[in-house]
Amino acid sequence: MLARMLDSTRDFTVIAKDRKTNLSKAAQSQVADLRALVEKCPAFLGGNVKVISPQILALKVLDGIVRRSRGYGSSSEILSRSALRGLVEILGPFSASTEYPRSLQTHGLQLLELPVSTLEAYTMGGYGSLEAQVSNDELVSLAKLFSVVSSWTCDVDLGPVLLLLLRLDINITNNRPSACEKLSDSSFIASLVALIKIKFEALSGALEEQERLLSVDLLVLSLGLMMNLAEFSSKARAVVGVQGSFPYFTCVISFMLIVD
C-alpha cells in the first residue's frame, strides 16, 4: 500500500472532491477534518507544507520504518522493489533541476529530504541492494544529486539535505569500485573539490556555532566521499590532480591513501 501511495501527489482534500472518488459532502468534510488533524501533527509542524498528500504520508512512514529498523540492527532488505523504485523515481526530476524546483515550493523540502533520508538509511552499513535494483544511469543520477542541490540558490536551508546526500553517496561508493568509477567524472569531482575548498576557508574565519558545526560535518563527509572515490578510481585521482585552484587538496587525499 505504501508503495502505491508514492504515486499519489494531490492533496487529500483535492482527492476527496474529485468526482471519481465519489464521496458525499459529509465524507468530504470528514476528510478535511482529518487533514487538519494531520497538519497539526509534530511531523508536519514547522515544515511550511502546503500540500498533504498520500505521497508525503507514505514517505514519512517509510523513512521512519527504515531508519528505525537499521537503528535496531536489521540487515534485511526492508524496502520492496516497488517502494525502492518509487523513491528513485521521485528523486529523478530533481537531478535535472538547475534551480530550486517549483514542486518543493508547493510540497516543501521534505519531498526531497524524505526519499533521500530513506535511501540513506536503507544503504547504511553496506546493506540494501540499491546498486542491483536500479540502472547504472539512475545510480549515477541519484549520486550526483549532491552536486545539483549544492548549486541551487534559494532562501531555504539546504544543509541537512546536503548532509544526507553526502552520506548516501558514501554508502553507495563504500568498497564498491564499479560505483566509484561511474561517479568519477570531472563535474562531480569538481563540485566536491569546490565544497571542500569553501568549507576549509570558511572554518578559518569566524562562524556562528551551528554554522561551524554544519561546515565541519560537510567538510568531513566530503573528504570521506572523496577518499572512497580516490581509493577505487584512477579517474578520480586524475581529476583531483588537475584541480590547480586547490593544490593542497591533493596532499590531503594522498595522505589519506597512504594512511589507508
Describe the protein's architecture and organization:
The chain folds into two domains: 2-174, no CATH class; 184-260. The longest helix has 24 residues, at 209-232. The protein is an all-alpha fold and 260 residues long. It is built from 16 helices and no strands.
On the 0 to 100 scale, the average pLDDT is 84
| Oligomerization | single chain
User: How many independent structural domains?
Assistant: 2
- Total strands: the figure is 0
Q: Secondary structure elements and their pairing?
A:
Blueprint: H1 2-5, H2 12-17, H3 25-39, H4 54-71, H5 81-91, H6 102-107, H7 110-122, H8 130-133, H9 136-143, H10 145-149, H11 159-173, H12 177-183, H13 186-203, H14 209-232, H15 234-241, H16 248-259
Helix pairs in contact: 4-7, 5-7, 7-11, 11-14, 12-14, 13-14, 14-15
Gist of the model:
The protein is an all-alpha fold and 260 residues long.
What are the salient characteristics of this protein?
mainly alpha, disordered C terminus, 260 residues, 2 domains
